[in-house]
C-alpha cells in the first residue's frame, strides 16, 4: 500500500479514490468529449457544485447565463453567496453583455448550449474567446450536446478559425449517457492536468464517489448513445416542425428551426448535421391560454409523462413559469406559458397524435 498512488490511477486504494469500473468509464467519457481527464460524481448538479467549490473563494465572482440550468443559479444564490462568493447573470445571446460583466473579480464563467428550458443556442465560440482573452476559466454544461453535437475542447466556426477549448465540461450522465432515466451521475472533464488535480482533490475531500453498480449501468448504455441521440433528434425535429403549424402556439423553440433564437450559431457549430440537436423542444402557448388550461393540456397527454428529466426512452412534458426563472424577460421570447417536451424513443406518429388529441381538448 505504501507504494500505491491513487491519483494517477496506477493503483486501486479506496472506493472514494475511484474503482477499476470508474476508471474505465472516465476513459470512455474522455474519448467521447475529446478530453484528457475525467471525474465522476453522483449527479450532474454535483459536477456543477464541485467545479464551483474547487475554483471559487471569498471575494470571487461567478458569471452564469440567465437561461442556465435552474439549480446552477440556485447554488449561487442559496449557497455560494453565504461564503462571500458573488454571482451575476449575463445575457447568453449577447456576447457584449458577457464582455461587460467580466471583471477583475470574475474567476469562473458558466456556459450552456443550448439553454436547458428555452433552448437558445449562444455564440459559444465568441463566449469562450472572451473568457480566454480575459484569462478567466470557463466551464460548459455540456449535457445537451452530450459530446455528440459539438466538441467542447475543439470548437471551430469554419475551416480557418482557430480551434478553442473550454476549460471544463460538465455532463449530467443522468440524461443521454444513462439513457434509461434510472441512474443519477455526473462527469467533469478537462484537458489540463493541474486543473484536473485541483478538481480531483476537492472531489475526494468532499467524498463524492460514485457506486460501481451505477457506473456499470452507464458503461452498458454508452455504446448506444450516438444511435439513441440521433433517434431523439430526428423525432424531435419532426414534432417541432409540426408544432410550428399549430395555431395554439405563439412560439416553438428548437435550435434547428430557422425562427428559433440562436439558430445561426447552432448551424455554425453543428454544420446542420442530423444527430446534433438532442431531444428537447419547447412551445410558448398564446397568452389567451391560462396556466390552468396549459396544465390541463399536459394532463391530457397519454404517452408523455410529467417530469423534469430528459434523455430516457419515455417522452416527458413539463410546464414552466418563465417569469420566475429569468432576471430579465428576454426580447426574443413571446409572452405565455412555456411547455418543454423531452422526446423519448416512441414513434413520431404516436407522439404527434397524442399532442393533437390533447390540443383538441384545449379548444373544446
Ligand atoms: C439534469 C441536468 C443537470 C443535473 O443533472 P442531475 O444528474 O439531475 O443532477 C445539469 N445540467 C443540465 C443542463 C441538466 O439538464
Describe the protein in words:
The structure is a single chain. With 364 residues, the protein is an alpha/beta fold. It has two domains: 15-223, Type I PLP-dependent aspartate aminotransferase-like (Major domain) (Aspartate Aminotransferase, domain 2, 3-Layer(aba) Sandwich); 225-363, Aspartate Aminotransferase, domain 1 (Alpha-Beta Complex), CATH 3.90.1150.10. The protein contains eleven helices and twelve strands. The protein has helices spanning 20-33, 44-55, 70-78, 95-101, 124-134, 193-206, 212-221, 225-244, 263-270, 291-300, 348-363, and strands at 37-41, 61-65, 86-90, 106-112, 137-141, 168-172, 186-190, 249-253, 280-285, 305-306, 316-320, 338-342. Helix 2 packs across helix 6. The longest helix is centred in the middle third of the chain and has 20 residues, at 225-244. The chain is globular and about 75 Å long. The model has no long low-confidence stretch (mean pLDDT 95). Bound molecules: pyridoxal-5'-phosphate (PLP). Pyridoxal-5'-phosphate is lined by residues 43-45, 69, 116, 141, 143, 172, 174-175, 184, 186.
Amino acid at each position: 500500500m505504501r507504494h500505491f498512488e491513487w491519483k494517477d490511477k496506477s493503483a486501486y486504494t479506496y472506493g472514494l479514490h475511484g474503482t477499476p469500473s470508474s476508471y474505465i468509464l472516465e476513459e470512455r467519457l474522455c474519448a467521447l468529449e475529446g478530453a484528457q481527464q475525467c471525474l465522476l460524481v453522483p449527479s450532474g448538479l454535483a459536477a456543477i457544485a464541485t467545479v464551483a467549490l474547487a475554483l471559487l473563494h471569498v471575494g470571487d465572482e461567478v458569471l452564469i447565463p440567465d437561461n442556465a440550468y435552474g439549480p446552477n443559479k440556485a447554488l449561487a444564490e442559496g449557497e455560494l453567496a453565504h461564503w462571500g462568493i458573488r454571482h451575476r447573470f449575463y445575457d447568453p445571446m449577447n456576447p457584449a453583455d458577457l464582455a461587460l460583466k467580466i471583471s477583475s473579480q470574475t474567476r469562473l464563467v458558466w456556459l450552456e448550449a443550448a439553454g436547458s428550458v428555452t433552448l437558445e443556442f449562444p455564440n459559444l465560440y465568441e463566449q469562450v474567446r472572451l473568457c480566454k482573452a480575459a484569462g478567466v476559466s470557463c466551464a460548459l454544461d455540456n449535457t445537451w450536446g452530450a459530446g455528440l453535437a459539438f466538441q467542447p475542447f475543439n470548437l471551430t466556426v469554419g475551416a480557418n478559425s482557430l480551434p478553442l477549448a473550454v476549460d471544463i465540461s460538465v455532463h449530467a450522465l443522468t440524461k443521454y449517457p444513462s439513457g434509461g432515466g434510472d441512474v443519477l451521475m455526473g462527469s467533469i472533464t478537462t484537458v489540463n492536468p493541474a486543473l484536473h488535480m485541483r478538481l480531483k482533490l476537492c472531489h475526494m475531500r468532499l467524498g463524492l464517489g460514485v457506486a460501481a453498480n451505477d457506473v456499470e449501468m452507464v458503461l452498458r448504455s454508452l455504446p448506444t448513445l450516438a444511435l439513441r441521440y440521433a433517434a431523439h433528434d430526428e423525432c424531435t425535429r419532426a414534432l417541432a416542425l409540426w408544432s410550428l403549424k399549430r395555431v395554439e402556439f405563439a412560439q416553438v423553440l428548437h435550435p434547428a428551426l430557422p425562427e428559433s433564437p440562436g439558430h445561426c450559431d447552432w448551424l455554425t457549430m453543428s454544420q446542420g448535421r442530423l444527430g446534433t440537436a438532442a431531444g428537447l423542444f419547447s412551445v410558448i402557448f398564446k397568452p389567451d391560454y391560462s396556466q390552468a388550461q396549459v396544465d390541463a393540456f399536459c394532463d391530457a397527454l397519454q404517452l408523455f409523462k410529467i417530469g423534469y428529466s430528459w434523455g430516457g426512452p419515455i417522452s416527458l412534458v413539463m410546464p414552466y413559469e418563465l417569469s420566475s426563472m429569468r432576471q430579465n424577460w428576454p426580447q426574443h421570447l413571446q409572452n405565455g406559458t412555456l411547455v418543454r417536451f423531452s422526446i423519448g424513443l416512441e414513434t413520431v406518429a404516436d407522439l404527434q397524435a397524442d399532442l393533437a388529441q390533447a390540443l383538441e381538448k384545449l379548444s373544446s
